[in-house]
Amino acid sequence: MSTEMKTDSGQTTNRPEDMSTKNSLLILAGIFITSAVAMFYVYLMFPELDESEKEHLRIPWDIEDAKLLGLVLDRYKDRYYFEVMFGIILR
């Protein structure tokens, strides 16, 4: 099935469905690239953590790990409020 159709004057043009698909894919790619660049920027601006904080910065497996992660994130939020808020807004 051809993606082109002939007009009354004999010229070939792309079908509207194909143009809509191309536009949608371009928009999707633009959103993905913009999000990736924004998240990379947040990563670059991420301040250094103390060694004691780094050991708790992982996926919690039980309630005690979750509490320790919460404490680290709370201290981090207090010290770097704008970085945290920027990351939340970008998310």
Task: Describe the protein.
The chain contains four helices and two strands, in the order ββαααα. By secondary structure, the protein is mainly α. The chain has one domain. A two-stranded antiparallel ribbon has the order 1-2. A hairpin with a 5-residue loop joins strand 1 and strand 2. The longest helix has 30 residues.
| Major pleated sheet | 2 strands, antiparallel
State the assembly state of the protein chains: single chain
If you average the pLDDT, what whole number results? Answer: 78
Strand order of the largest sheet: 1-2
Number of structural units classed as domains: 1
Name the shape in a single word. Answer: elongated
What radius of gyration results from the CA coordinates? 24 Å
Number of strands: 2
Note poorly predicted spans: none
CA-CA gap between termini: 41 Å
Secondary-structure element string? EEHHHH
Kindly list the characteristics that best describe this protein.
single chain, 91 residues, mainly alpha, two-stranded antiparallel ribbon, 2 strands, membrane, transmembrane, transmembrane helix
Outline the secondary-structure elements.
Layout: E1 4-6, E2 12-14, H1 16-45, H2 51-54, H3 63-79, H4 81-90
Helix pairs in contact: 1-4, 3-4
Transmembrane segments: 25-46
Keywords: Membrane, Transmembrane, Transmembrane helix
Please sum up the structure shown.
This protein has one domain (19-90). Helix content is 67%, strand content 7%. It has helices spanning 16-45, 51-54, 63-79, 81-90; strands at 4-6, 12-14.
